[in-house]
Design brief:
Oligomer: single chain
Shape: globular
Number of helices: 13
Distance between the termini: 37 Å
CATH architecture of the largest domain: Orthogonal Bundle
InterPro entries: OMP_Chaperone_SurA, PPIase_dom_sf, PPIase_PpiC, SurA_N, Trigger_fact/SurA_dom_sf
Strand content: 15-25%
Structural class: alpha+beta
CATH class of the largest domain: Mainly Alpha
Radius of gyration: 26 Å
Number of strands: 13
Order of helices and strands: EEEEHHHHHHEHHEHEEEHHEHEEHE
GO molecular function, one term: peptidyl-prolyl cis-trans isomerase activity
Protein name: Parvulin-like PPIase
CATH topology of the largest domain: Triger factor/SurA peptide-binding fold
Keywords: Chaperone, Isomerase, Periplasm, Rotamase, Signal
Number of domains: 3
Pfam families: Rotamase, SurA_N
Helix content: 40-55%
CATH superfamily of the largest domain: Porin chaperone SurA, peptide-binding domain
């Protein structure tokens, strides 16, 4: 697992956050007692050091000049508004202030990326930005004009997201010109990976997302408490796990929502492997102590390497739904649901669904491409046991209505195949491009002239 920097190359629009910046001011003196901790930094820090002043995050304002390019407070506010609107969250107080600092850092990175791309004669034409803006608008279910109005309504602007689009496109093109040509993966390496995959056939592997927080020994308790607080916020369901990974993780995977992809227990540190083996799909675990800090894990899915998974079977379904009028009481909804359940028992295969639905005023929707693993976990277990022509028990709510799924057909999952050599090579090359992109961005940050106002 990569721990440093942010994966920028090929990231999705919307993954816009980096680690928070902080500032310090010189003022009155304070003495820190000797903690008897070994100096592992290589910085030759005195054992009995003095802190001249106190940490004051307010000293560093949300405005900066980056190599003569000005980032204003309005730029920061509009990007923050965009993030909150895209994630459907409303942050206040310290959480809001922390997000503003993180956004400032992201905007600084964007400036550096655009400036560096220009050194390679990379220029993103307005027509390309227009095309990508329309694509983002479509992801929100809106036309470009409607999306621009949506941004203004939420305190953001078309200019803010266009700037982000320009930075991502410029950096991606820069990497293709200056990094990708020098990344090579040999045939021997590819064959070695294929051999390891074959040897691991049948081994369980996990699709994990991770939030990694670094912690020195003297900060261990505080970082652990911060991780616990993150887990509490995740459990509240205010935002998806990926939002917290983008905001707070210090691993390189934060640029892709903390996604570690598919990994086997043997590829993980012992503590993470032990946690993954005990997790259920959809569960969050942690904080897990790992070398250098703590991790919070989210189990997206699990499977066996190169083994057919029954949950990959594709189903042909008919969904029958009844909806309740506004003002329906719980008692009325329960009675109507019981009637619905009785009716579903009279179904004689999929051929009778439309007739029964017409009798009880239900809606019918067909779908022939559903995988079992794409259904909620509770329904997955039911569908695995269901025979063709049978229906699930009713499910739903008084507000959303009650549904049943009728199984009309099942295409069993085929045996998994080894990935091709070209696919393995492409994945390795992409990983190495990502790593070099991280290194390049760290160098740009180090060399940049940044003045905070």
């Amino acid at each position: 697992m990569r721990r440093n920097g942010a994966v920028r190359y090929g990231r999705l629009i919307g993954a816009v956050l980096a680690i928070a910046a902080a500032g310090a001011a010189i003022g009155q003196q304070a003495t820190v007692q000797d903690q008897s901790m070994p100096d592992n930094t290589g910085l030759d820090i005195p054992a009995n050091l003095q802190i001249f002043g106190k940490l004051d995050p307010n000293v560093r304002k949300a405005t900066a000049i980056v190599n003569d390019y000005v980032i204003t407070g309005t730029d920061v506010d509009q990007r923050v508004a965009l993030i909150m609107a895209a994630n459907n969250i409303n942050l206040q107080g310290e959480e809001y202030d922390r997000l503003r600092l993180q956004v400032l850092r992201q905007l600084i990175d964007e400036v550096l990326e655009i400036q560096q791309a220009k050194t390679a004669d990379v220029k993103i034409e307005p027509a390309e930005i227009d095309q990508n803006f329309a694509r983002v608008a479509k992801n929100f279910g809106k036309t470009p004009t409607e999306f621009a109005a949506f941004l203004r309504e939420h305190g953001s602007s078309e200019r803010s997201i266009r700037r982000q689009i320009e930075a991502e496109a410029a950096w991606s093109r820069y990497l293709r010109r200056r990094v990708e040509p020098f990344v090579n993966v040999g045939d021997v390496e590819v064959k070695s990976i294929l051999a390891r995959l074959e040897a691991a056939k049948g081994t369980e592997e996990f699709h994990l997302n991770e939030i990694y927080l670094s912690a020195t020994p003297d900060r261990s308790d505080q970082v652990y408490a911060n991780a616990r607080q993150l887990i509490d916020e995740i459990h509240k369901g205010k935002a998806p796990f990926g939002y917290f990974a983008r905001n707070f993780s210090e691993a390189s995977t934060r640029g892709v929502n903390g996604d570690l992809g598919w990994v086997r227990a043997s590829q993980l540190p012992d503590a993470l492997a032990q946690a993954a083996n005990q997790m259920q799909i959809g569960q969050v675990a942690g904080p897990v102590a790992v070398p250098g800090g703590f991790s919070v894990l989210y189990l997206v899915d699990k499977r066996q390497v190169l083994t057919a998974d029954p949950r990959d079977a594709r189903l042909s379904l008919k969904q029958m739904t009844i909806k309740f009028p506004a003002g329906t009481t719980q008692a009325q909804a329960s009675a109507r649901t019981a009637e619905f359940a009785n009716v579903t028992h009279t179904l004689q295969g999929c051929g009778s669904v439309e007739k029964v639905a017409a009798q009880i005023g239900a809606e019918v929707v067909d779908n022939d491409t559903i995988r079992i693993r794409d259904l909620p976990a509770a329904l997955q277990q039911i569908m695995l046991q269901l025979q063709v022509g049978q229906a699930t028990p009713p499910f739903g709510s008084p507000t959303d209505g009650v549904r049943t799924l009728v199984l009309c057909g099942r295409d069993e999952a085929a045996s998994a195949q080894l990935p091709g050599a070209e696919q393995i090579q492409s994945q390795l090359e992409q990983q190495r491009v990502n790593l070099r992109a991280q290194q390049a961005l760290r160098d740009l940050r180090r060399d940049a002239v940044v003045e905070y106002r």
